């Protein structure tokens, strides 16, 4: 048991999928895991452990934004010794050729957050994906015919920015998408010698203003969940 997770020791698998939305964790558990058992209800941040193709896998929501994400990931790493963490999320596109419904594998995450400035006493850390996971997700995603992109993203501390043009600076530097969690996930995974990857469906475009409706979001979410689970169990 940790402060925000009520699971007993051993109830969480080494490998965990992390959607932001706890109802998406429930959806993955109910639709893809065999014999899922719920290990967390605290704050309705649902978490489950079951098996996928015979391999033990967990899935748990983390909430939105780095502060919430950080609490759960810290506890999973510190108290439950989780070793592989795959964020399953959405992002906004910052590039004209990154379309709604594409899937981005985030190779590294810049951030406008101060969390690493504080952690590294004003110096910069480069939060990066685990190369082994990245290579597996790329290979499996290509085999499954997904429209995949691999590249950098920006993890932002705000969804509603004071400056509606702020994203353009990141776009100029080739950043593919904007979301709110991966930089903290990658930093914490590095600290605890764990493996992390963010797999993100593009849900909206800052460039075109296009966004997906809820039906499309469910369909694209299924494709991303399947890619994440296959990556989680791949040797
Ligand atoms: N900004 C931040 N996070 C997001 C966005 C966005 O536009 N779209 C999906 N997640």
Largest sheet: 5 strands, mixed, barrel
Overall pLDDT metric: 97
Please state roughly what percent of the residues sit in beta strands, choosing from under 5%, 5-15%, 15-25%, 25-35%, 35-45% or over 45%: 25-35%
Structurally, the number of domains stands at: 1
Return the CATH topology: Rossmann fold
Mind telling me which CATH architecture this is? 3-Layer(aba) Sandwich
Q: What is the global morphology?
A: globular
Gyration radius from CA atoms, angstroms:
17 Å
Helix segment tally = 7
Tell me the name of the CATH class.
Answer: Alpha Beta
The counted number of beta strands is: 9
Give the helix/strand class.
Answer: alpha/beta
**CATH homologous superfamily caption:** Nucleoside phosphorylase domain
Uncertain segments of ≥5 residues (pLDDT<50)? none
First-last Cα distance:
30 Å
Give the bound compounds. hypoxanthine
Provide the spatial order of strands within the biggest beta sheet.
5-8-7-6-9
Helix-strand topology string: EHEEEHEEHHEHEHEH
Please give the share of residues in helix: 25-40%
Structural write-up:
With 235 residues, the chain is an alpha/beta fold. It has a single domain, classed as Rossmann fold, CATH 3.40.50.1580. It is built from 7 helices and 9 strands. The protein has helices spanning 22-32, 66-78, 115-119, 131-143, 167-172, 182-191, 214-233; strands spanning 15-19, 34-40, 47-52, 55-60, 84-93, 103-111, 148-155, 177-179, 195-205. Strand 2 (34-40) and strand 3 form a beta hairpin. It is globular. The two termini are 30 Å apart. The mean pLDDT is 97. The structure holds hypoxanthine. Hypoxanthine binds next to strand 5, strand 8 and strand 9.
């Amino acid at each position: 048991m940790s402060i925000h997770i009520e699971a007993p020791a051993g109830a969480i698998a080494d490998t965990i999928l992390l959607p932001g939305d706890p109802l998406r964790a429930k959806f993955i558990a109910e639709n893809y895991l065999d014999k899922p058992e719920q290990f967390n209800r605290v704050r309705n941040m649902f978490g489950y452990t079951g098996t996928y193709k015979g391999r033990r896998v967990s899935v748990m929501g983390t909430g939105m934004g780095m502060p919430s994400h950080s609490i759960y990931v810290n506890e999973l790493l510190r108290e439950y010794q989780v070793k592989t963490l795959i964020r399953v999320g959405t992002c906004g596109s910052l590039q004209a050729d990154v379309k709604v419904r594409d899937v981005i594998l985030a190779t590294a995450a810049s951030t406008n957050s101060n969390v690493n400035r504080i952690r590294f006493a004003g110096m910069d850390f480069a939060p990066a994906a685990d190369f082994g996971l990245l290579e597996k997700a790329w290979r499996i995603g290509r085999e499954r015919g997904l429209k995949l992109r691999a590249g950098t993203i920006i993890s932002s501390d705000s969804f509603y920015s004071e400056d509606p043009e702020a994203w353009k600076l990141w776009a100029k530097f080739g950043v593919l998408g904007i979301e709110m969690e991966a930089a903290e996930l990658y930093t914490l995974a590095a600290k605890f010698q764990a493996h992390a990857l963010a797999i993100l469906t593009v849900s909206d475009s800052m460039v075109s203003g296009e966004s997906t409706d809820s039906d499309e979001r469910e369909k694209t979410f299924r494709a991303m969940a399947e890619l994440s689970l296959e990556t989680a169990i791949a040797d």
